[in-house]
Amino acid sequence: MGTIELRFDAAIFSADVVVRTTYRYSGDFYTSVEHEATTFVVRLAPRSSTVNLALLEERFRTDALDERMREQIREETGEVHAALVTAALREAVPADDAGPTP
Amino acid sequence: MKFRGREAFTGSRPYRLLPLRFRRLPWDPSRAFVSSMSGDWLLMEHATLERVIDRVLAADDPVLTDMEARHLIARDIDRSTLAPLLSQYKARKAYLSQGPALHIIVVSLRCHHTCSYCQVSRKPTGASSFDMSEEVANTVVERLFEWPSHTLTVELQGGEPLLHFERVHGLLSRIIERNQREHREIRFVIASTLHDLTDEQVQVLKTYNVQLSTSLDGPEALHNANRPRPERDSHARTLAGIERARATLGPGSVSALTTITRRSLEDPLAIIHEYRRRDFHSISLRPLSPYGFARKTVARTGYSIDEFLAFYRKALEIILSVNHDGYELEEGYASLLLSQLHTPFSHGYVDLRSPTGAGLGAVVYDYDGQVYPSDEARMLAAMGDTSFALGRVEESPRTWLSSPAMRRILDAGVAEALPGCSDCAYVPLCGADPIDHYARQGDPVGHRPTSDFCRKQMGMFDLLLERWELGSDADRRVLEQWALKAPRSTPSDDVSEAG
Question: Is there a contact between A81 and B396 if contact means CB atoms under 8 Å apart?
Answer without folding.
Answer: no
